[in-house]
Specification:
Elements lengths: L16 E3 L5 E3 L10 E4 L2 E4 H9 L8 E4 L12 E4 L1 H6 L2 H4 L14 E5 L5 E5 H29 L1
Antiparallel strand pairs: 1-2, 3-4, 5-6, 7-8
């Protein structure tokens, strides 16, 4: 891929880009609720990374998504974008590559549970958290049944 520069983009985009230390072309204007830059093109609102890629590299192949290799959603540097399938894009996501669960348990070895989903992707779960949730859920069910039993006995 040839080296592109932000000022190679149209005048409604180029001045709204700041280049950071990693070479990301960070969009400095409107972003959607997921953090991707948005720009008006031909009366429609489009994602800046898609517009930049199409203008400077060429069309995005049918059925492919642009993966931000830099993991920086407002970045619209075409050198940081790669057309990939949705499956590959999801597998590369931060959620798919994280090494610890929300409670700090390592997602490795016997503690990592990988479940296939209907859409062909997989989900990574923490066995320790799943076991804790199951125990708490069973305990709640037991306590609820015990309370219901005592309530019935008291009203009879």
């Amino acid at each position: 891929m040839s080296a592109h520069r932000p000022f190679d983009l149209p005048p409604n985009m180029a001045p709204k880009i700041a280049v950071d230390e990693r070479g990301c072309w960070v969009w400095q204007n409107a972003c959607n609720n997921k953090g991707y830059g948005q720009v008006g093109v031909g009366g429609k609102v489009r994602s800046t990374h898609r517009v930049a890629y199409e203008l400077l590299v060429g069309p995005i192949p049918d059925g492919l998504h642009l993966d931000h290799l830099c993991r920086n959603r407002p970045c619209c540097n075409p050198a940081h974008l790669e057309p990939v399938t949705n499956k590959v894009n999801c597998e590369r996501s931060a959620r798919a590559t994280k090494m610890h669960c929300a409670h700090g348990h390592a997602l490795t070895g016997a503690n990592l549970v990988i479940k296939p989903r209907r859409n062909g992707l997989t989900i990574r779960n923490c066995r320790t958290c799943a076991n804790t949730l199951r125990r708490v859920s069973n305990r709640r069910s037991y306590v609820e049944a015990l309370v219901a039993e005592r309530t019935e006995a008291a009203t009879a």
